[in-house]
Write a structure and sequence with these properties.
There is one protein chain. By secondary structure, the chain is an alpha+beta fold. It has a domain of 73 residues: OB fold (Dihydrolipoamide Acetyltransferase, E2P) (Beta Barrel), CATH 2.40.50.840. Helices cover 31% and strands 23% of the residues. It has 13 helices and 16 strands. Strands 5, 11, 12, 13, 14, 15 and 16 form a 7-stranded mixed beta sheet that branches. The longest helix has 20 residues. The protein is globular, with a radius of gyration of 22 Å. The N and C termini lie far apart (66 Å).
């Protein structure tokens, strides 16, 4: 074996259930030390320290503060942008640098303490955490929302993902009730996995019947119990090293896990710009590329973890990869973001650490996927207990076409996808529509209570609507 072959040799996860809990820096240090111990590597010898962006707190120097805590002086440091693909991008870049001889070891860590932030907020207190950035930096968007989306208040994932769900529902010919029942059947097995996962945030098994009803809507047709739970206190870390270093450290062969192949691809950044709201070109491209680089296929996978922030992310991935949502292997090794926990940009570190633990316990291959922004960015990584494959380029690949977005529009159009936003009290507040219009697509809102009730009672996709504009915001009626 090439002595530069990268392998994953250290893993750690931590979940804090009592709030207020530690700040992110404390969590980073905890999992970093545990992962380094698992790797038999003294933390001060780390060549690279990389951290996934945390939404919980803005530090003045995130990597520098962790390095200081660890007594390390890494020659390479990185702090990611926002997005669920960030862990894969850091891991992939670290593996490539190790293979190229630029690094011998790398730590990738991440943590969120959003449950603790909520606890302080409810108590009317500020989080007493260390080293705040002064002044605060702008939010780490890779790209800000489209001006037309901002003008209509449509920029939260809890609203954009349901729009894509309704578009797919209509394309599949499902009724509203059939989509909800199917979603419950897909997600109920995930709750069983979470119940067996000691790091999972929600560890209560749920039946399909329980998931299909009885919970309040957030972004209709999604209920609170079927979307990612963000307010968690969780951390994870992995350590990668060259095979040569792993040999010197005395890491047993059965505790090494190899990145056989991975890939990254993007759909269009704006939801309304996608020619097909209910499907993804990029996921299929990323999966095929990762499998080709790994020299393996979907049938070779012994375990799977498909990113599950919302059901449409699962469904689009299954459609693109050719995976039955009820595959007996299951869709997750952790329980998924709605049940294991969805710590902002950090979840893929947890799924990767869990997958590595499984492949240590029983040799085989596993697929871990990631999603970023509004089902925009996609990563697929094939992990294995056996070396092989090739890493390939880490450069983003753009595969999607774009439909023009009209900032304002007046006239007739056809609903392509929609959702109804609900407040914390469970009441419908506003409808968001993506409308097919001559020359492209337009966003529109609905505020009339009778129309909102009708939108939730019947299929609105394909309905002809009238759109009026005040020059900034489009309003739809029918």
């Amino acid at each position: 074996m090439d002595p530069r072959t990268p392998c994953l040799i250290g893993i750690a996860q931590r979940t804090v259930r009592e709030q207020p809990g530690p700040e992110p820096l404390d969590l980073w240090e905890s999992v970093a030390r545990e992962a380094a111990d698992d790797a038999r590597l003294p933390v001060e010898r780390l060549d690279s320290i990389q951290i996934v962006h945390t939404d919980s707190w803005q530090y003045d120097s995130p990597v520098g503060r962790l390095a200081e805590r660890l007594g390390a002086a890494p020659r390479h440091r990185a702090y990611s942008k926002v997005g669920g693909t960030a862990p894969h991008l850091l891991i992939g870049a670290a593996a490539a640098a190790i293979a190229a001889g630029e690094l011998d070891s790398a730590l990738v860590a991440g943590a969120e303490a959003l449950a603790t932030r909520r606890a302080y907020r409810k108590a009317g207190e500020r989080a007493p955490w260390s080293h705040p950035a002064d002044p605060k930096r702008p939010y780490a968007w890779e790209r800000p929302p489209h001006p037309a989306a901002l003008a209509h208040g449509l920029f939260l994932p809890v609203h954009t993902y349901p729009i894509m769900e309704t578009a797919r529902r209509a394309a599949e010919g499902l009724t509203i009730e059939e989509e909800m029942r199917e979603r419950a059947r897909i997600m109920a097995p995930m709750t069983e996995v979470a119940a067996a996962n000691p790091y999972a945030w929600r560890r209560t098994p749920r039946t399909p019947e329980e998931l299909a009803g009885g919970d309040r809507f957030v972004g209709w047709p999604y209920t609170r119990s079927t979307v990612a739970v963000l307010e968690v206190d969780q951390a994870a870390a992995v350590v990668l090293a060259s095979t040569e270093l792993a040999d010197r450290l005395g890491v047993p062969a059965d505790r090494r896990v190899y990145l056989r192949g991975w890939a990254y691809a993007e759909d269009t950044w704006e939801v309304a710009a996608r020619p097909s709201l209910g499907s993804s070109e990029a996921i299929g491209f990323a999966a095929k590329t990762a499998f080709d680089r790994a020299g393996l296929g979907l049938g070779d996978m012994h375990a799977l973890d498909v990113y599950s922030c919302f059901a449409i992310a699962l469904r689009q991935a299954c459609d693109a990869i050719g995976l039955d949502p009820l595959d007996p292997r299951g869709l997750t090794v952790t329980g998924g973001l709605p049940y294991a926990g969805g710590p902002a940009s950090d979840y893929v570190l947890h799924s990767t650490a869990t997958m590595a633990g499984l492949l240590r316990a029983q040799s085989g291959h596993g697929l871990v996927t990631g999603v970023g922004m509004h089902l925009t960015k996609h990563t697929c990584a094939v992990w294995s207990s056996e070396p092989g494959g090739r890493l390939g380029s880490a450069a983003p690949v753009h595969v999607a076409r774009e439909a023009p977005i009209l900032a304002t529009y007046e006239g007739a159009g056809t609903v392509a996808g929609y959702t109804v936003a609900h407040g914390a009290d469970g009441l419908a507040e506003k409808g968001f529509l993506v409308v097919d219009v001559p020359g492209g697509r337009a966003y529109a809102v609905v505020a009339d209570a009778e129309l909102l009730a009708e939108a939730e009672a019947r299929e609105l996709v394909g309905t002809r609507v009238r759109v009026a504009t005040d020059g900034e915001v489009n309003v739809a009626s029918w």
